[in-house]
From TrEMBL:
Residues in Porin domain copies: 8-356
The protein's name: Outer membrane protein, (Porin)
UniProt-annotated location(s): Cell outer membrane
Membrane topology: Multi-pass membrane protein
Keyword terms of this UniProt record: Cell outer membrane, Ion transport, Membrane, Porin, Signal, Transmembrane, Transmembrane beta strand, Transport
SUPFAM superfamilies, per database record: Porins
Amino acid sequence: MKKTLIVAAVSASFATAASAQSSVTLYGIVDAGFTYVNNVQNTGPGPDRQVSNFDMSSGNLQGSRWGLRGQEDLGGGMKAIFALENGFDITNGRAGQDGRQFGRQAYVGLTTNGFGTVTLGRQYDSVVDYLGPLTANGSWGGTFFSHPYDNDNTDNSFRINNSIKYQSANYGGFSFGGLYGFSNNSEAFATNRAYSAGMQYANGPLKVAAAYLQTQGANGNAGGAITEANAANLGSGNGNIGAAGTISTKRQRTYGVGASYSAGALTFGGVWTQSRFDDVLASDADANFNNYELNARYNLTPALALGGEYTYTSANLHGFGQSEKVNYHQVGLQADYLLSKRTDIYAEGVYQKATDKGRANIYGVNSSASGNQVVVSTGIRHRF
């Protein structure tokens, strides 16, 4: 249950005075648990070798966060809105998103009943807004269910700075939107910028969505649209491209479609996305990923839900004097039990296999030393 503070705001304009009502809502999620990984690459001294890992982890299903949302009724069906959202690691209390105070979201804007919403600030792109909710990781599964390296950003690996976003009203189940992130560079307008667009149709149990995202020169320059590195690389027999699972790229293009259908206690769906990366690591190397996902969730009882996902990813690398292809097969299962409307406990497992000498890398943990990797996680989540 959200805790809402309601205050009366009285404003004056020239010789007339009017009063409007404002509200500010404090909300958040705290998610902590334990995670076991059977196979990670040794990062210490000595030759590569396979080791296992067991640790306490934060944000397995949803990133731990707290935030403030507010609105003010301006009259005539128009409202001023804002959101400030901080992400943090519950295991040590540190701020997430490279230490930002409000790294998850920070925006202000206007909304109307008939026209839609315009916001400015640090925001999610259209892939996150429209396609993400149809994936397992973007709805109920959490980070470990993401496509390899979260190459399509359905798990919110990065946000868009300096962005203006429009989201339409709902027109008979159809809605759409778009975003543009400015580079804020007067000498290189097209460097480190981003733009995206998406649409959704929801009619009863059926939902269908499509989205597109493009970033240019996402090199982490301060002040640009993208300051976190894109969370994607290609695990090959010669080692990962880029450090710590990230790459810099001259251009990223991601697009996809998805659908879901609910029949009683069962919801099932599928998503296809493709991500293309040009001039990887400031070279002439290119990488692309095709992701095919099937997912389903069944409410066995009002308190217990069971979920499953299968993803096939075909990844290709061209450059560095070689041409490689790696296929990833990933299966995930989850059980989620509600202790109350705000608190649940969960257990899940994810298995990934990479072919053709590729290294498995379940998103959210370190890369495997071989082509196989298993992650088992359990924890508790509380919403307020």
